Amino acid sequence: MSTTDPRNVFLRACRRQPVEHRPVWFMRQAGRYMAEYRAIRERAGFLEMCKTPDLAVEITLQPVKALGVDAAILFSDILIPIEGMGIAIEFKPGPLLPDPVRTRAQVQALRVPDPHESVPFVLEAVQRLRHELPPEVALIGFCGAPWTLATYAVEGGGAKEFTRMKRLLYEDAGSGELLLRKLAQTNAAYLQAQIAAGAQAVQIFDSWAGMLAPDDYARWALPYVQQMIEEVRREADAPIIYFARDAWGAADSLRECGADVISVDWRVPLDVARATLGTDVGVQGNLDPATLFAPWSVLQERVDSVLARAGDAPGHVFNLGHGILPQTPVDNVRRVVDHVHERTRV
Ligand code: CP3
Fold it and tell me: Domains in the chain, start-ordered, CATH in brackets?
């Protein structure tokens, strides 16, 4: 099955085909910076929003309507699929896991669930979104990378130094690796199910990849991402985007991940990223999210600089270097979308 609709510039850019204008979307484009999101958030909890298809569909569509982006990303969270493995999750508002995974027995007890049983609400939202979105707007599904999800599972929430996670790997590598493997299997099946339900591309978020030294990245992060990508490709041919935040020190490994597009943060100039990664992979990024708070003259200059460094070769998707921040002025985000489209129209 070919998932590339010729009307869709985002999907064609992911496949490094020429496009009429540079596609734009933003990581965390649905969220608290939008009044429409806050209105729903006032009457519903975050998990309830993720688990109620009516709400997840509505929130996913909010930035598409308000900003004119070329892709919608499913409204959900990377932690949603680990509940079905047997790991309880809460949000206050950041993730909080009341019963962290710390022992071999706990790792062994984790399940690799069937997504149709563990997250039917996600698959329903994806199906409905595909029907509601116009053909020129792509639907992106997503999941977390095994390393990043393992840090939440073991640390019990966000962390600074990741000593619990790293200690697990130093002291009992077998248990740490079993946890990473189960997360890879669970999330590969999860991505496959999202694609089968109508997601046309998927992104793997490795937000904490930058906490690993390059050799440790090559041992504890990369192989599980490769395993996931191989498993997804066996069933589906949707473009796969990999975002490894702050991991440019492991650039040699990144080249080996097998994704169609590498999403880079703002610490790496895109011309350097392209020269290092080569021509058989696309790049996504990489405006610093904080520049969205700048006056338009400054912001415009930064956007133009990203476009200039990306160059004119096919295979660039405009995005931020990380997620939109909560207080971001919506008008600036909208202006960036219009500006990128106008500046790059051929
Ligand atoms: O991009 C989108 O618009 C889709 C929705 C999305 C959310 N989380 C919604 C969300 C996506 C793709 C994610 C991914 C995610 N979740 C990541 C990877 C991306 C990244 O930012 O690095 C991570 C690390 C998480 C874990 C997570 N979930 C954190 C750290 C937090 C707290 C952050 C905060 O801003 O408070 C969440 C909660 C969360 N996920 C919110 C949203 C809109 C805020 C919840 C609220 O409204 O209170």
Answer: 9-344 (3.20.20.210)
Catalytic residue among 22, 33, 37, 152: 152
Q: Which two tokens stand for residue 224?
A: 């599980």
Which of 28, 40, 83, 265 should be mutated for ligand 1, with most atoms under 8 A from CB?
Answer: 28
Residue 1 has pLDDT above 70, yes or no: no
pLDDT at 281: 97
Q: What is the three-class DSSP state of 122?
A: helix
Show the 3-state SS of 282-341.
EEEEEECHHHHHCCHHHHHHHHHHHHHHHCCCCCEEEEECCCCCCCCCHHHHHHHHHHHH
Can you say whether the dihedral through the CA atoms of 133, 135, 137, 143 is positive or negative? positive
The pLDDT of 245-257, averaged and rounded, is: 96
Q: What is the pLDDT of residues 254-267, one digit of tens each?
A: 999 999 999 999 99
Within 10 angstroms of residue 325's Cβ, the number of other Cβ atoms is 15
Q: How far is the CA of 94 from the centre of ligand 1 (A)?
A: 8
Note the pLDDT of residue 6: 81
- pLDDT category at 3 given cuts 50, 70, 90 is low
β-bridge mates for residue 258, sequence order: none
Q: State both tokens at 99.
A: 């019963």
Residue with tokens 């990245």: 217
Q: Which two tokens stand for residue 162?
A: 């990741």
Q: How far apart are CA 142 and CA 136, in angstroms?
A: 19
CA 276 to each of CA 24, 235, 256, 279: distance values in angstroms, whole numbers, following the listed order? 23, 29, 12, 9
Give the pLDDT band (50/70/90) at residue 220.
Answer: very high
Spatial contact of 268 and 230, defined as CB atoms under 8 Å apart: no
Name the residue with tokens 């909560």.
326
